[in-house]
Amino acid sequence: MLTAIVHIDCDAAAIPEVAAQIAEIEGVSEVYSVTGEVDLIALVRVREHETLADVIASRVSKVPGVLRTQTYIAFRAYSRHDLEEAFALGLED
Prior knowledge:
Layout: E1 2-10, H1 15-23, E2 28-33, E3 40-46, H2 49-59, E4 66-73, H3 80-88
Antiparallel strand pairs: 1-3, 1-4, 2-3
Pfam families: AsnC_trans_reg
Organism: Cellulomonas shaoxiangyii
Domain Transcription regulator AsnC/Lrp ligand binding: 6-76
């Protein structure tokens, strides 16, 4: 599974509408409105690179109100949940 974190700049007057449209795109698992330098952050999870290109370049970028996207491909995920499970391997409670 490939995960991409997509930073999205959009028309500030249309943030809720843009976010809702992006959230409906197949492959987009979550969309967050955020503070900072970008308006929205979307998580895209797909099985193949070709699908990733289609979702971001052909669909997310084409949503009316999207001005610019910047995509980061995730290599590895780290979370407290994952680390707790790793350290608990082979140990009894």
